[in-house]
Design brief:
The protein is of the alpha+beta class. It is built from one helix and three strands.
């Protein structure tokens, strides 16, 4: 290996000047707004595989502080003048007062729509 000016071929001639220190400015990224929630429509799937339908022409209800009980039944006594009526209760639905309130809203809307189409219901 030959040397020129006391340096080997493997060494590079580097300057001994100190590098200028540059002050790096801290770049503050702008805050990104949170992503807007995507409006997803929740779909309700009704499982009717075990559903049974029945006709009811009688309904009565009772309540306590914690629950509302609605009984649905069938009056098969067509002669209303003949003594006591015997009602066969087919279904009993027990729900919270909150659920009963929602049921009331749904029924009010349903009856309003019905009366708008077919005229008002008479007692």
């Amino acid at each position: 290996m030959t040397q020129k000016n006391g340096q080997s071929n493997n060494q590079k001639n580097t300057s001994t000047k100190p590098a200028k220190a540059t002050k790096a400015k801290a770049v503050k990224p702008e805050p990104t707004p949170p992503p807007e929630p995507v409006a997803t429509e929740r779909r309700v799937k009704l499982d009717t595989s075990r559903m049974k339908s029945s006709y009811c022409n009688v309904c009565n209800a009772t309540s306590t502080r914690e629950e509302v009980v609605i009984n649905f039944g069938l009056n098969q006594s067509w002669d209303r003048t003949d003594g006591d009526l015997e009602i066969e209760i087919a279904h009993r639905v027990i729900m919270s007062p909150h659920a009963a309130s929602k049921l009331r809203e749904v029924l009010n809307e349903l009856i309003d729509e019905y009366e708008g189409r077919y005229g008002s219901l008479k007692d």
